Structure formats: C-alpha cells, structure tokens
C-alpha cells in the first residue's frame, strides 16, 4: 500500500515543477518562472515585486520596502501622502533599510 502512494507522490511532484511552452502561428505561451504570453500585438508577462502601469489599485501596497498608494510609488522619506484618487491622508513611518515601513490612515 505504501509503494503506490510513493509513486503517486513522485509523479505529482514532478508535474508541479514542469514548464510548458506552446507555439502556434502568431501565439506564444510559456509557463514557469518569468512566464509570458503574446499574440496579435498583445503581450502579458508575470513579474514578482512589480505593479504594472495599467493596474487599477486602490489602497496601500508594500513590496520589498517600497510603498505604493493607489498605484503611485511613494518616494522614500515622504512622511505624509494625500491620495489623489480617494483624498485619504496617510501617515508613513519609514524604518531603517530592511526593517520595514508602517502606513496608517490619518
């Protein structure tokens, strides 16, 4: 009973780490790290740690000690920010590099 379960586990773990690439005329799709899809003048990519310029974001997003409010990147050292989208006032407290940042609504 243990042997078949081990085989299933190995097969499933191999499938989870697989990459897929499909190329048809005019369309290209790749999955895995740095995956992308393109076709007829449209290109989509997957990057970690980045907010795309066309993303509709509302609220606070913190990625790797970088602060974004309503999709706008806030420069390090800014202690107060008024959202152009919602008119909400935010207080920003920057820690030392690597210690994080705290954002609260005023």
Can you tell me about this structure?
The protein is mainly β and 106 residues long. 14% of the residues lie in helices and 39% in strands. It contains one helix and ten strands. The chain has a four-stranded antiparallel β-sheet, with no helix packed on it. A hairpin with a 6-residue loop joins β8 and β9. The model has no long low-confidence stretch (mean pLDDT 74).
Short description:
This protein has one helix and ten strands, in the order H-E-E-E-E-E-E-E-E-E-E.
Topology:
Layout: H1 2-16, E1 21-24, E2 27-30, E3 36-39, E4 42-45, E5 60-63, E6 66-69, E7 72-74, E8 80-82, E9 89-94, E10 101-105
Antiparallel strand pairs: 1-2, 2-3, 3-4, 5-6, 6-7, 8-9, 9-10
Portion of residues in helices? 10-25%
Question: Gap between N and C termini, in Å?
Answer: 61 Å
Query: What is the average per-residue confidence, as pLDDT, rounded to a whole number?
Result: 74
Query: How much of the polypeptide forms β-strand, as a percent range?
Result: 35-45%
Estimated radius of gyration: 21 Å
């Amino acid at each position: 009973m243990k042997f078949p379960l081990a085989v299933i586990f190995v097969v499933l773990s191999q499938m989870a780490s697989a990459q897929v690439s499909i190329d048809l005329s005019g369309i290209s799709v790749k999955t895995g790290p740095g995956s992308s899809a393109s076709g007829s003048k449209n290109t989509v990519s997957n990057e970690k740690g980045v907010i795309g310029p066309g993303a509709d974001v509302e609220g606070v997003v913190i990625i790797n000690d970088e602060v974004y409010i309503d999709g706008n990147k806030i420069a390090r050292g800014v202690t107060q920010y008024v959202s152009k989208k919602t008119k909400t006032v935010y207080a920003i407290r920057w820690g030392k590099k690597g210690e994080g940042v705290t954002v609260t609504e005023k």
